[in-house]
Specification:
The structure holds 2 protein chains of 2 kinds.
Chain A: H1 4-24, H2 28-52, H3 57-87
Helix pairs in contact in A: 1-2, 2-3
Chain B: H1 2-23, H2 27-47, H3 51-73, H4 89-112, E1 137-140, H5 142-147, E2 153-156, H6 158-166, H7 171-193, H8 205-211
Antiparallel strand pairs in B: 1-2
The chains are: A mainly alpha, B mainly alpha.
Chain lengths: 100, 214
């Protein structure tokens, strides 16, 4: 019997994997992949809780998270392309123009 | 039985492919394993009776987001491995400690919280929390009841109930999200498509600032 706890444990492990990715990556594109993992982990948790309470509100929030993730990718990838055209690499350590 | 098997299969595949995404040095491997994980996550949604969410997951994530990344990879040199500076040992120690602490806190939070309710997926929670928008609604044909005929009960499936909630209670957030997607689309087109004919790497920083190319 699979309970809510099983799903929440899986979502937590996915979130931790995404967090490790965010912390260890220096390449901006790979950093974006890790943020997608974080958003998906939260979506799984929301859907599981929605099913446990037999309430649709959790699914609604998951839809809006998907919409926000899609727009984040569109804007972020545009910025990455502009940055790559200028610097020819996508290193986080080079984003130091506001460093004074 | 089937549910347990499907759950464990999907969790192993999803977590494995996400670990590959996080650890791989080649962007193409990373992208492919991320797409695999996204498709497998939709399996969770189908198991959780969220059919529409599962379909949206496949269409939006693997259809749109992954395709967008794949097109974006055409601008970057994706064949060479990403060289990243290895962080120092103390930093690795700190980061892994932080993520382990986070996992412990997330697991311990329900035990500390006063809400002690038996949680079972599928049977509903026996607490005093009433579902505002119940997932499966049975509608009895009122006209049949009045005329004394056999009442027809109709079970509304997930897609129908999602539509009903989304276009009543969440109509304004839905429209705001639509406007936000439009803004993001225009921003993406302008950022990626502007001055496609000029190479920004060959122009000096002062020239870019002067002419306002990027």
């Amino acid at each position: 019997m699979i309970t809510l706890t099983h799903y929440l444990v899986v979502a937590t492990i996915m979130f931790a994997v995404g967090l490790v990715g965010v912390m260890r990556r220096k390449n901006l594109l790979m950093l974006f992949f890790a943020t997608e993992i974080l958003l998906n982990a939260v979506n799984v948790a929301l859907a599981a809780i929605s099913n446990a309470y037999q309430d649709l509100t959790g699914q609604m929030f998951a839809f809006f998270i998907i919409a926000i993730a899609a727009s984040e990718v569109a804007v972020g990838l545009g910025l990455l392309i502009v940055w790559y055209k200028r610097k020819n690499r996508l290193d986080l350590d080079e984003l130091t123009t506001m460093n004074g | 039985m089937f549910e347990s098997f499907a759950f464990y299969f999907f969790s192993i595949v999803v977590i494995g492919s996400f670990i590959v995404t996080v650890m791989a040095n080649n962007p193409l491997y990373s992208l492919t394993s991320l797409a695999t994980g996204m498709i497998m996550i939709s399996g969770f949604f189908f198991l959780l009776n969220a059919d529409f969410l599962g379909v949206v997951q496949i269409i939006v994530y693997t259809g749109a987001v992954m395709a967008l990344y794949a097109f974006g990879m055409m601008f970057f040199d994706s064949t060479k491995d990403v060289k990243e500076k290895n962080p120092s040992a103390s930093l690795v120690f700190l980061l892994s400690g932080l993520s382990a602490l986070l996992v412990v806190v997330i697991f311990a939070a329900p035990m500390i919280s006063p809400l002690d309710i038996q949680m079972t997926v599928g049977e509903g929670l026996a607490g005093n929390i009433q579902a505002l928008y119940p997932m499966d609604t049975e509608v009895i044909n009122q006209a049949a009841v009045l005329t004394g005929a056999e009442p027809i009960t109709q079970v509304i499936n997930n897609v129908q109930s999602v539509g009903m909630v989304l276009f009543t209670k969440y109509l304004i957030p839905f429209e705001v999200a639509a406007v936000m997607l439009l803004v993001a689309m225009i921003a993406g087109i302008i950022l990626a498509g502007k001055k496609m004919d000029k190479s920004l790497t060959l122009t000096s920083e002062d020239e870019i600032q002067e002419k306002g190319i990027a």
